[in-house]
Write a structure and sequence with these properties.
9 helices, mainly alpha, 237 residues
């Protein structure tokens, strides 16, 4: 990939030195978003038309509409400055201890997860409601299967393809989200490296980063396409 024009360091070495914080942030964001959003979407679909459903959907619209940097600065003001529960900015390696490592990821993960939780929850709700009128759902209910089992074992499983798709899109969207979040929270990851390379007009480094992000985007989409067959065997035929 060549040598950086600014630091005279190989581009591969610069990228490998910064990839750790970005992987940690991306992994924690996807895990947190999935663990919160899918149960939230199922719960909203289960209580369709109620105040709970409307409240969850209002949160989804708000969460996806507010920019990440606004959410990030609000979290810093509240939890880092006012209550002093977590550090304002910075990053600690996992080798420095799990709790210091986790402390510096809490606020960035929360800020980055807000939009993804809203998006995934909304798609989960829509996908489940779409399959709730199918014949196999009525058959399951006619057999006397409890409603929560119908929702989890039948409706959620058969609506997995749209949910998997939006998870793949969310991972791809992390690329742009990481750039903003790492700048707000001063994380020394690939997002900050993108900003630094653009400001320095370091073209070899910019090209290397674009190539890496493109490969990640293509790899994620390919993995999602393969997973379609796992969750819905009918796609094979």
């Amino acid at each position: 990939l060549g040598v950086s024009l600014h630091s005279r360091t190989p581009v591969v070495q610069m990228i490998s030195g910064r990839i750790g914080p970005t992987l940690a942030l991306a992994t924690s964001t996807i895990l947190l978003s999935t663990l919160i959003a899918i149960p939230l979407g199922v719960f909203a679909a289960w209580h369709r038309g109620t105040k709970v459903d409307r409240a969850i959907m209002a949160f989804s619209v708000l969460g996806f509409s507010v920019p990440i940097f606004v959410t990030g600065y609000a979290l810093i003001l509240l939890f880092a400055i006012k209550f002093a529960w977590v550090p304002v900015q910075g990053y600690k390696q996992l080798a420095d201890g799990f709790w210091p490592f986790a402390q510096h990821l809490i606020l960035p993960t929360l800020a980055l997860s807000t939009g993804f939780v809203a998006l995934i929850a909304r798609i989960t709700r829509s996908s489940i409601l779409e399959v709730m009128g199918e014949d196999y759902i009525r058959t399951a209910r006619a057999k006397g299967i409890k409603e929560h089992a119908v929702m989890l074992s039948h409706a959620l499983r058969n609506s997995a393809v749209p949910i998997i798709t939006i998870l793949g899109i969310s991972i791809a969207l992390l690329i742009s989200g990481v750039v903003v979040t790492e700048s707000v929270f001063n994380l020394p990851g690939l997002g900050r490296l993108v900003v630094e390379s653009v400001l320095a007009r370091d073209y070899p480094l910019i090209q290397g980063l674009i190539l890496l992000f493109s490969m990640v985007y293509i790899g994620v989409n390919l993995t999602i396409d393969v997973l379609y067959v796992v969750f819905d065997p009918r796609i094979r035929y």
